Automatic annotation (TrEMBL):
EC numbers for this chain: 2.3.-.-
Keyword Transferase in record: yes
Listed transmembrane segments: none
Organism: Oceanobacillus locisalsi
Coiled coil: none
Primary enzyme class: transferase
Keywords noted in UniProt: Acyltransferase, Transferase
InterPro entries recorded: Acyl_CoA_acyltransferase, GNAT_dom, N-acetyltransferase
Name of the protein described by the UniProt record: GNAT family N-acetyltransferase
GO molecular function annotation: acyltransferase activity
Residue ranges occupied by any N-acetyltransferase domain in the UniProt entry: 6-152
Length: 154
C-alpha cells in the first residue's frame, strides 16, 4: 500500500483549506470557494471521524470523507493535492481509497458525486468500476452546476 489513511488533524485541514488552489475550472474545488463547506471542513466536530488525511511518504497528498447514507451504503468525497492532479496518480489513489472504505466499513455500495465538467475524475472512477447513476443540478459555490452521481458495487 502506497498511501496511508489517518484521521485528519486540524493542521492538515487548515493546510488543505488555505493552501490547496486549483487552476481554471477546477478552482471550483478550492475549499475557500464555498464558505459553508469551508466552515464545515475546518470544524473538527463536524469533520468528526469521517474525514481522513491521505499521506504518501509522510507527505499530505489527498483526503477522503466517508459518510454512511443508508444501511451499508457510503458516500465518499475525494480530494487530491492540486499539483498532483492530471499526472496519472488518480487511479492508484482511488483504488486504495476504495480498499480503505471496504476494509473499514464493509459496504454494499459506495457512491460519489462529481461535477460533470471534471472528465479527468469521471474517467478514473469508471476505470475502477464506478457506474453512472444519474445527473442532477446543484447550487454550490455561488452557481448551479451539473453533477454525476456514480455507484460502486462492492
Amino acid at each position: 500500500m502506497l498511501y496511508k489513511f489517518t484521521m485528519m488533524t486540524q493542521e492538515q485541514a487548515e493546510d488543505i483549506a488555505f493552501n490547496w488552489h486549483y487552476d481554471g475550472d477546477y478552482s471550483f474545488y478550492d475549499m475557500k470557494a464555498d464558505k459553508e463547506d469551508l466552515d464545515e471542513f475546518l470544524d473538527s466536530e463536524q469533520r468528526g471521524d469521517s474525514t481522513f488525511a491521505v499521506t504518501k511518504e509522510n507527505e499530505l497528498v489527498a483526503f477522503i470523507s466517508i459518510n454512511e447514507v443508508a444501511d451499508r451504503m457510503f458516500e465518499i468525497g475525494l480530494g487530491m493535492r492540486p499539483n498532483l492532479t492530471g499526472k496519472g496518480s488518480g487511479l492508484e489513489f482511488v483504488k486504495e481509497a476504495l480498499n480503505f472504505v471496504e476494509l473499514k466499513h464493509k459496504p454494499k455500495k459506495i457512491i460519489l458525486s462529481v461535477a460533470t465538467f471534471n472528465q479527468r475524475a469521471i474517467k478514473v472512477y469508471r476505470k475502477v468500476g464506478f457506474t453512472d447513476a444519474e445527473t442532477f443540478m446543484q447550487n454550490t459555490n455561488g452557481s448551479t452546476l451539473e453533477f454525476l452521481k456514480m455507484v460502486y458495487e462492492c
